[in-house]
Fold these 3 entries.
Entry 1:
Amino acid sequence: MTPMTKQSPRAGVAFDPAWRSLLECAAIEVFQMMAGAQLSLEANPPAEPGGEVTAMVGLAGALCGMVTLRCSRPASATFASKMLGGDAASNPSMARDAMGELCNMVAGNFKAKISSLADYCMLSVPTVIFGEDYAFTPMHPHDEITLCLNFDGEPIWVMLVAHS
Amino acid sequence: MRKLKVLIVDDSSVMRKIIERSLRQAGLDLTEVLEASNGAEGLAAVQTGLDMIFSDINMPVMDGLEFLKNLASVDAAKGVPVVMITTEGSEARVVEALSAGAKGYLRKPFTPEQVKERVAPLLGV
């Protein structure tokens, strides 16, 4: 995990809509390599993101914003089990921490694919929220990419919010 | 196969478990796995007989690079290969770690096969 304290400042990197495919690729790689879970882009996503478990990692430096990962509780338990072994699925704190780590790795893998961000954008320690009844409202002008991936019929939401 | 004793230093308990699991999935025969949640705890956990040390780079209290530098003065760590593990794509930090004495690095995400590829030559297994 990465405290936001270390790199020298650099001019901000402008949001690029082409990051969508990089974010998709970053997420699919992380789930495949770390959880042995095959995700694909959902052809018919629900109108709004949902799921009781949301992990968030902040971005600071050349790109400021946030990466979030959201899914159902059963899906998060499945990922924990795949990453840590069978008993992790019945341990809520392990499922929580696994989601945080997955989000951290998606954010890290995403920025590693963009040379202008790799050395100049830092990640925060992950935060995990349980519950669906919340509104996500960035306070600054921003761009965002929202991806709905499919894992065994379950939607897995990945979002990048980039402050302008 | 040689039996191995390793130290894993990472502030995430989940990541420590993932690293241990990946090492076992890579076919390494771990007899003892010591854990520490930051570099300072890692220095205190170093003991004789270690075959390898894995360390995250970004950690609170004492980060992986500071840990690596301090490790040089710990007798029990002499000759023990250190592999750095990071989520960052930062070349600069990897180069810094290798310059400070790390023998290799793994960038998350990784597969057990990649772990084996990086670790086996350092262990001679």
Entry 2:
Amino acid sequence: MASFPELQNNSAINMDGQPPVSQLPAYAELHCLSNFTFLRGASHPEELVSEAARLGYRALAISDECSLSGVVRAHQQAKQEDIQLLIGSEFKLGKNSTLIILATHRQSYGQLSALITHCRRHAEKGHYQIHFEDIKRFIREAVLIILPDYHNPDVTLLEALSQFYNGSLWIGLNLHHHADEALKKQRLYQLAKQFRRPLVACGSVLMHKASQQMLQDTLTAIRQNQSIYQLGLDLESNAEHHLRPLKTLQNIYPPETLAETQTIQKRCHFSLDELRYEYPAEVVPPGKDATQYLRELVIQGARQRWPEGIPDKVRKLLGKELLLIKELHYEYYFLTVYDIVQFARSEGILCQGRGSAANSAVCFCLYITEVDPALNDLLIERFISKERNEPPDIDVDFEHQRREEVIQFIYKKYGRDRAALAATVITYRTKSAIRDVGKALGLDLSQIEQMSKAFAWWDKRAEYLTRLQESGINTNTPTMQHFVQLVERILTFPRHLSQHVGGFIISQGPLSQLVPIENASMVDRTIIQWDKNDLEALGLMKVDILALGILTAIRKCFTYLHTLRGQQWSMATLPAEDLKVYQMLQNGDSTGLFQVESRAQMAMLPRLKPVTFYDLVIQVAIVRPGPIQGKMVHPYLKRRQGLEPVHYANDDIKQVLERTLGVPIFQEQVIKLAMVAAGFSAGEADQLRRAMARWKKTGELKPFQDKLKKGMQERHYPETFAEQICQQIQGFGEYGFPESHAASFALLVYVTAWLKCYEPAAYCCALLNSQPMGFYSPSQLVQDAKRHHVQVFDVDVNKSQWEHHLEYKTLPSISTLSPQQQPAIRLGFLLIKGLKKQSIEKLLQARHKKIFSNLQDLLDRTQLSPAELETLTRGGALAVLSGNRHQSRWQIQGMEPSRPLLNEKLLQDDAITLPTPSTGQEVMEDYRHLGLSLKQHPIALLRHHPELRHCKLAAQLTELGHRRFVQIAGIVTGRQRPATATGVVFITLEDESGNSNIVVWKNLVETQRATLLGARLLKVKGVVERDKKVIHVIAGELIDLSHLLGGLSYSSRDFH
Amino acid sequence: MQRKTAPNPALPYKACCYAMNRLPYSLCLYFPLLPLEIFTLTMEESRPFALEHRVKNRRCILMCNTTAQSQGIKTGMSISQAYSLIPELLIQCEDTQQQTQALQQLAIWAYDISPDIFLHNNHALMIEVSSCLKMHGNLNNFLLFLEKKSPQIDHHCSASITHSFLGAYLLAQQYFLDSSEKKFQSQYLEMNALHDLPLFLMDINASQTEKLTGVGFKTLGDLFKIPQAALHKRFGADFICQLHDIRGESTPALEKFVLPDKFSRTINFIEELEQVEQLIFPLQRLLSELSNDLLVRQKTLRQLKITLGFREQKNEHLLLGLSQNRQAHSSFVKEMVALLRLKFSNYTLQAPVILLSLDVEHFFPLQQQSDDLFVPQKSSTESPEALLDQLQARLGPNALQGMSAQEDHRPDRAFSLQSLNCNQDPATPLLLPERPLWLLKEPRPLMIIDQQPRMNGPIQLLKGPERIASGWWDHAPIQRDYFIARHHSGALYWIFQTLEEKRWYLHGIFS
């Protein structure tokens, strides 16, 4: 008994009983990893900061391994809590040493950031390389803490570090109740004495609470790619790597080592708020000032835009905008974007800006946008607000096939040390979480797949447990309970960094002084360690360089029209507000157009009946989750048709909602409403906007919604209105669609509609040459063109080019093309699957002299290999030379292979007559090798089949009355299950006359699931439902007729 | 199918037939569902089940049971699509090893048709029947004989006889495609029936199929019309040889079945079995195969080995020794099941079972029949108690293998009974820190006086705590602070306090 008091006096050995509590020590945690040290840290940076603050730590360092990815989040959290955040990073050095470097001030931070950049850029994506020399080279001022391997310390390293960083080096003591910690302490004290450096306490924290251990173990298993059962001693032996209470720390660590944390904390006084962004200076010519230069450019542009004189309205607008830009110091931003756009224009790359600042008169004059401010009432103030003080946001879309040129231009102009892409943090989503956690828990792959499928793409997370039970999995076993719990916890955990779709950050000085840069997985790409939210939080400027397929198609179409009609169109010069174009749109004839091509948009067009450009702006924005979930669509349509009166609660509201008839449709309106109707301050409204963009990931909307409802209640707005706004806010989520984007998109809608209306052949040809893109397959586009009386010709070895092209000289009656006449489309070789461009180039060269007269001639003059010839045959391109596919393939197959020196000769010895392919076979081959057929539609071939006897054509649906019973059959070209329509699945069927839209209600979805998901050819018995020009068939029974198609390959666009 | 250029010496009779200008008769027993049935025969019909097939990285459905079929699962469908149709679908990979075992078992069953049996493509038996036709008198009688014998097997089978092996094989496949309602069906067809067979039945790859259909060929008949030289040039020598084999103009190289000297059959369960009783049904199946095997071999056995497999642990082997040699007889299966029931009656499964196998390593010659005449059915007349005694005497505790040692932070797991009892090398390097040499099987609670642990007097804590909090994943989590303590006698003890209840235990003794 006498031995116990003695034991308790020994501070290293305590019984977790009652230590001699005097006063809790001051402590700063200097070594803490967040989950941005992927698969090691088991807590979010925010959680760590909050917990450290709660425990009364003076400071917390986020020191992720060779990364600063998590620090911005931690910084934002620390600003809300009463705790200092230290910025640092951990490095594994040599064999077993760990080094922590903490930034002491701005320069020190820049050095750390540059060191990380260096280490990351010299290794594969996701890895880093570090040597003592690198540290010496980059780090001049910082706090360094070395955690040596106490069994076998790297004395040389310690020697070097202590010589070079004498006063800035500490030796870290981290204690976690392991068996030999007495020994560890003893050895470290010896080292401290030997190198005359102080010991400092650190917790080597991996999680904010001990309860995260389960998750930490699981992460270890995922990292090692083993199941938890196999890991054994690779797992932590206890949960001590969490943020421990001060009392516990006091019991474990010698007081002087705790006191040293304070010394270090006092040395580090860097905050991320000190980061100042500097715009690249070269966008302004030497000797000029930015304001003046921007003004000059704008005036020059305005003169070009309005050669007959700048309209008064515009002149006033420009003055106002330039003033605003000057006040907010955004000149460099506009000039940087201008510089990039200028490059694209000089290269003939079509581009179009959108975003909060893009639709301004200034941007129109700088050619960043083509939305004409003289015709449209779009005020920049709506997009940049003084009080919100957020950085302006311009996204620029470029032709998708040529965006890389723009990116390389930026790298070349500013250098890789000054320009890099923003990161996108890839986080655990349900599927990846199920897979990784399942593997970590040792479940087998089929079981994991089964569980992953149990969570169908339409299920809510809360229903997951029920779904698992339904699929026959016993969720009561401990393993399954762990599984469900872990999946839930790991969701939203960052997994790795990927490149943002196009967000560039460009700076004046080396970017690596601002934020570490690392390699992306794509060759020649570098990304910074922060994502767009981080950049936004720190107020750093970013330009989005995005790729947009439709711009490629528009540019190509303009080029064709120049050759064909001798007219040079541009997006700004096409005749505006053309009645015929709107008539076409009102009929829902929008296959192949930009944005309004989807089935939902097509169904909306005849209801909304757009007649002006602004109607298109609304049309683009209304068929989206926000307005739909907020139930804003029907009220808007009713008011538009004059069936419902428009009234406003007061003038403030009227100002916000007048242009959309009192119904909030755009994101900006909702935010403005929060200010006007619920009393949000500008700052709060801005927070709301960010929360909306992120809520799917963080779920942080609730407090805003509560505040909104309360605010509106206080101001006597009806509860239902508040509820609708809340719903809408939720719906905006990640799909938030601001008016500024809608306006830019609406212009592209108008341009594509005009082209389709007046130049259907050229437009279709341009679309076909810009594939893959958009909603429709080449087959559907070609069918649509044919319905618009455009002639389309097969691939022909003697006529086709690599790309599709327009033909009119071969049309029998036409020698020159009159404006009313449409050229024909000749399909190009690129349509034939498996054919290489190089082989066709050889062929085209040979054909240039003389067209081919027969197979032997083709063979002699092109030296194409039998395989290449066979591919041409499969695509039907040789039909003109050899009759049918069977015969020409037989001949080509008969060629003797591998006689490189001799001219291969076609073997005429087997004069065998083979069966002639039937039309059905030809169509099947066409689909297989070209993806489309001009001969006949597969359904037309099956019309005589008894199963299709009573089926109507899609085109005949218009003749049928409302509620009429109908049978219809077609190839399934699309299945959609909109998140906004509970349980309903929409199917698109295609036949020889066009498309029909089938609605399958929830109960039928459940009972005929197999047919619904599996059928390629479907017969539907149902009832016609008509609303004006919108016709649906409500399915009563689905019959799978896929067997009639045989081997026809026809892909359906499912659930996108 | 592997083709050898040398003539096949395994077919002397056939060569003889040709030499004598007589038509040979070849039987093919085609078991189309064998890959599936090796799984489904031991499970409930009502559960949807499918086999998967991997082509490069694509996983798709190879075949499925009728329950899955009725819910829309089709061959070739992707695994994800299948799951979206039936979320609770059970899917397994093909198990070619088990399939071979099953096919060999079927060959043993077919041994009394003719000993000239050849295994083909892991799902068919080719049997030379020209000679046995004579024995049965005519073809009709032979087909009747087959029909009568068929209920002995559990598998779907389509049987065809014609005058070439490959021809019979193709006809049997087509026969199943045409009508698959009956479990067993048999037919004899003349060679010209081959003309109507579709090309895809041939052993050709996708590119050859594409080439053939690309020029309009659909049936074997289409090919037979084309001059061989033209085909040879386009499709190669192997293709021509195959056509020859099909037409019976040459004989393919086939693997002749030879009785293996051991009996070994394994069943992998799709679902884990948690009750001992659940093992009986699959064992019955294995035993009936064994019985058939014994009959064909005309041998007896003295010992059976049963292996149980678990997910996370080593397999466990159970030996069932028999008091005397057993031979196959009508109640062999029943008797063995009775013995096993006894064996299992006081046995608890240490974990759910995922694999079961039955092995017989040695066979013994059949004793003279007269022995049995004097002691008819001796084994079954013995009382169960006596049998039990016998079994226990024979099995002993050593039939069970203990769990192996593994790396684990938890001392109870890291030091298993085996490592203490067995003569394991004491120098085995352990990464764990200081641990006592003697670990108690069960930690022993310590007396607490004045909140201090005691053990026949006071003890002094020397070192610690070492906190071990681990093992949440396998139902044996611990949260303990370990200390090294000195007893007044001088002995060093390893004791711990639990973190939650704050109780003290003795766990080990340092020597």
Entry 3:
Amino acid sequence: MIQFITHNMGPLMFMGLILFMVIGYPAAFSLAAVGLFFGYIGIELGHIRPDFLGNLTFQLYAVISNELLLAIPFFTLMGTILERSGLAEDLLEGFGQLFGPVRGGLSYAVIFVGAILGAITGTVAASVIAMGIISLPVMMRYGYSVRHTTGVIAASGTITQLIPPSLVLVVLADQLGRSVGDMYLGAIGPSCIQVALFAAYVALLSVVRPQDVPALPPEARVLRGWPLIARCIRGMVPSIILIFIVLGTIFMGLATPTEAGAMGVVGGFILAWLNGRLNWDLVYSAMSSTMRITAMVVFILIGARVFSLVFQGVGGKEWIEGLLISLPGGVVGFLVFVNIFIFVIAFFLDFFEIAFIIIPLLAPAAEKLGIDLIWFGVLIGANVQTSFMHPPFDFALFYVRGIAPPSVRSSDIYMGAIPWVVLQVILVAIVIAFPQTVSFLLDAPAKVDPAKIEEQLRNLPGFDMPMPPLDLSTSPRVQ
Amino acid sequence: MGHLLAISRAIDALNKQFGYVANYFVLFAALLSAANAGFRYGINALIQLSRDFHFLAGIQSLVHWYGNNSNAFLEAQWYMFAGMVLFGAAWTFKVNEHVRVDLFYGWVSDRARIWIDLLGGIFFLMPMCLILAYVTWPWFVDAWYSGEVSTNAGGLIRWPVKLVLPMGFGLVALQGVSEIIKCIAALTIGYRREHAYEKPMQ
């Protein structure tokens, strides 16, 4: 019996993970508990040395001193503020009027604005809530089908997760040990394809089921000519400035993603102030919800570090790696399996749990198979979008539910999401089939350039001591 | 039971204060980080300005002051990050916003949920927090006695951030005690727990 346990600590611990997590106690604590429980058994059986747990301190310290993770509170805060800054309203009213005369025009406007908001913020809530409040009543009033309306709003909100600057990609870059800048460049192609897919679907609907996506009647088109153009410009100008502040500075190598997030926060404050919406209640509620999300996420990471330290110690990583490498079908077989696995596991775990628990298990096998981890990361990023569109972590649908009138049935919201999930799965298939969609921009010279930032730092007057190398490409981690 | 609930209320009140501090860390960290980045872009322009306009000479000393302390400002960002996570985790736990896998939890009765929270608190949360506080504490003690300072020029002293780890786990353990008391009260005298579990918003 003891011998059986000793030889199968990896698989047993993995089963322990499932068992402990399914009970339903907060995941962060359950994860750490599995780790410590099996750590204790491992030490008793002489599998790992007692001082092995001393590494824990380094691991925990590496988590809190990881500057990249600061992007989590910054992007969340920026999203919460922008959601209430009035930006989405300006954009949607302009583009809704602009595209309105066409069949499906309001849907195009939502998709387009979702992409613009996605290029500014990195969180789903900001886009979905802001877009839903404006577009949902208008679309329903002019006869768009309920399922299509809720689906397009939720799906366009999840584009945020793929279009840079996305929080999902920051976290994946950190877990895969790749540079965030490269991850962002790699994601540009797939996010354009996704927008195109969504628009193509609306175009198809307007032919196949025109009654679902009617054009706006003339009396609803209140803006014409110059006022309409002015309205669109009013939405676009601050958007372009914000996109430059956040995304532009990252791509030009002027700022780290973390700093870009922080400047996005300031930009959001300024925009909210210009629109007369900045007040202390808004700021404080944004701060406190950001704090709770950050604490929740980073505690999952802490729990996951405790788990994976012990899992590594008992040889679990080799076990998983062996299993994954021996999958039939080579690289494609591995990717198909991994993507199906993540698609399924997303019904049980939320994104951060997937990123912190599952990804570190998959990454070494992917690397051994010679898979480019940027491509792999973007694929996973595209894949987890679906998890926002189906239960139980259907945040995008949840927000739509929150703003939809009671007459909209929840079953309609779920049914409405299905076509969009299918489109997202198609996107994943496209990216697997054509790695160039990710890699074509990566050979371009514009990258986050650590040397450039370091040089700026060196030019600061007052430095007599040599600067330590600034390593932006990988986060500081102890492994 | 009344005494125990009083203890629970006291713990909640304490962690509310720490949560309050953690909220402010979010805002200050974001503003500081933006200022750091902004200052770095703007620094050459500022120096040029102060050369061209003599009445702006004060800027030059400001720039020098910033240059001498820039590592301290950069490090203060993640000190505050550590603070918001570890001071805020207990309050986040109090308002029941740590994400769960609610496959089973979402399906069972209220009473079964109380049992899960009670046993989870005793067997998952308390051992984790106590062990993690125990292993991180000596690090703080070392840093405190050795007066360890960042290896970056002009960086910050290290013990505060090393204290944050054991303190945070201690606070979560305390909150664990408070929640365990509430579970026992709920099972025995029908105490109503105030925060039902909802999926955290992202």
